[in-house]
């Protein structure tokens, strides 16, 4: 009775095409879902019995089709490469964004930065040389000196604020790492449980891949798929997630729990094991806190100290309007935070030691000599050093931006390859749905035809009319 077998074959085709339609519908519904991976139904031909009977043989050609499973359209090589490239991208992006903010705060080149304030300070000293008896000229010198000190302090404060923001971000990022690791361990547990019951784990695997990508972006961690479908993650060879168990990433040095600096380079542990060389967001922030921001601040402190010491030394070589020797605190500061603490130490314009000759207390005539004011101009020797500092920082910023842009090109290429495989194409799904629809209609037509044949065989055989 091959006809009855044909009914089952047509029924299997209808059921299979219904599964295809369901999967295509799910793909279309999740076309914009972050982390969703396109599904594809795997069909399997149902053949004749593999074991022949002892006293009979089958005359069946085949028994139709069945859905043997639903594949996620992923490539493990591309996924591993994608995690590695995203870790590098996050590392560079964190630095590029922070350094760009600091660079904007420098206000260089321009008239609002330290170089502009230096030029104004020198200009007011020239005005004093040209108008030795002018109290207004003396006041202008002190005013421009205060502006210069303010510009240096502002730049130091911008660096300190950026460092403070990065320390707070580091604390939050480490907490995010631990939370994500906990979520991945819970997902691994759910995958293992679903696998035992042969349930659909596709959505759980999507979540697993999303979480592992997040850990890679945060720490540069590498992932490995387990036999039960879960995923282990290691950071620089130290296990962060192993099946359903996790270890905590902790800040061992560099940042206190309240977000302040402890004066040491950043250091990390996972469990009881020290881990170094992290990538991703954590590694990028560490490089900012340990090198790039402190290096520029150290250069700025050196410039501020040189300026203050040279001006203070020359100031002591002159005499103020009362005939007294110049003080050694024209600029005042506190080591080692010179740039952040730089201030003008004198407030009375008469205390400005512009003269190179003392005034005779018995003489009512004011000494109009401004030789020391002219010498103070020559004592300003930090212009070239400051310009080098700015240029060096600009080179670091430009290099980091360039590396981030180059890395973005590579990351985008990998993402594009992954998207071509795992992403949902509405056009492709529409074609799949139309194909499944036509196949379903054809199978239904086969069933109708077989039904008609059986009706003739059963009800009309032997009839004469």
Explain the overall architecture.
With 465 residues, the protein is of the alpha+beta class. The protein has ten helices and eleven strands. The chain has helices at residues 2-29, 76-106, 114-130, 135-196, 202-219, 280-315, 338-341, 371-378, 383-422, 426-460, and strands at residues 39-45, 65-72, 222-225, 231-235, 238-242, 245-246, 249-253, 267-270, 273-275, 331-332, 343-344. It has a four-stranded antiparallel beta sheet. Strands 7-8-9 form a three-stranded antiparallel beta sheet. A two-stranded antiparallel sheet has the order 1-2. A hairpin with a 2-residue loop joins strand 4 and strand 5. Helix 2 (76-106) runs antiparallel to helix 4 (135-196). The radius of gyration is 39 Å and the shape is elongated. The two termini are 25 Å apart. The model has no long low-confidence stretch (mean pLDDT 89). Belongs to the flagella basal body rod proteins family. It is found in: Bacterial flagellum; Secreted. Residues 99-330 form the Flagellar hook-associated protein FlgK helical domain. Keywords: Bacterial flagellum, Cell projection, Cilium, Flagellum, Secreted. This is Flagellar hook-associated protein 1.
């Amino acid at each position: 009775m091959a006809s009855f077998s044909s009914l089952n074959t047509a029924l299997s085709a209808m059921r299979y095409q219904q599964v295809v339609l369901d999967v295509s519908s799910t793909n279309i519904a999740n076309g914009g879902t972050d982390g969703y991976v396109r599904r594809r139904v795997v069909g399997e031909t149902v053949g004749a019995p593999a074991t022949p009977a002892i006293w009979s043989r089958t005359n069946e050609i085949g028994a139709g089709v069945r859905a043997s499973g639903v594949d996620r359209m992923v490539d493990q090589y591309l996924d591993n490469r994608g995690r590695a490239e995203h870790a590098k991208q996050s590392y560079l992006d964190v630095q590029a964004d922070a350094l760009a903010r600091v660079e904007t705060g420098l206000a260089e080149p321009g008239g609002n930065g330290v170089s502009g304030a230096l030029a104004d300070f020198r200009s007011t000293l020239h005005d004093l040389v040209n108008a030795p008896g002018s109290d207004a000229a003396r006041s202008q010198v002190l005013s421009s000196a205060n502006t210069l000190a303010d510009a240096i302090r502002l730049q130091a404060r911008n660096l300190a604020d950026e460092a403070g923001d990065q320390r707070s971000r580091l604390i939050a990022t480490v907490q995010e790492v631990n939370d994500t690791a906990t979520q991945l361990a819970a997902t691994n547990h759910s995958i293992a449980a679903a696998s035992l019951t042969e349930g659909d784990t596709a959505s759980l695997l999507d979540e697993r891949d999303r979480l592992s990508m997040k850990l890679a972006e945060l720490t540069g961690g590498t992932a490995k798929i387990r036999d039960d479908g879960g995923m282990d993650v290691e950071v620089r060879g130290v296990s962060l997630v192993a099946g359903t168990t996790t270890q905590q990433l902790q800040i061992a040095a560099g940042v206190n729990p309240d977000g302040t600096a402890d004066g040491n380079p950043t250091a990390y542990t996972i469990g009881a094991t020290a881990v170094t060389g992290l990538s991703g967001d954590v590694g990028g922030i560490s490089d900012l806190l340990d090198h790039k921001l402190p290096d520029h601040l150290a250069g700025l402190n050196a410039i501020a100290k040189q300026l203050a010491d040279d001006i203070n030394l020359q100031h002591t070589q002159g005499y103020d309007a009362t005939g007294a020797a110049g003080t050694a605190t024209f600029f005042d500061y506190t080591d080692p935070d010179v740039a952040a603490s730089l201030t003008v130490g004198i407030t009375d314009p008469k205390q400005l030691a512009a003269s190179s000759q003392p005034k005779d207390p018995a003489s009512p005539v004011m000494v109009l000599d401004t030789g020391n004011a002219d010498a103070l101009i020559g004592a300003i020797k930090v212009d070239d050093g400051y310009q080098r500092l700015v240029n060096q920082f600009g080179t670091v910023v430009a290099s980091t931006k360039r590396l981030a842009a180059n890395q973005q090109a590579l990351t985008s290429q990998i993402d594009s390859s992954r998207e071509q495989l795992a992403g949902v194409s509405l056009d492709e799904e529409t074609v799949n749905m139309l194909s499944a629809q036509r196949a379903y209609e054809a199978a239904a037509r086969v069933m109708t035809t077989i039904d008609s044949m059986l009706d003739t065989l059963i009800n009309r055989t032997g009839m004469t009319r």
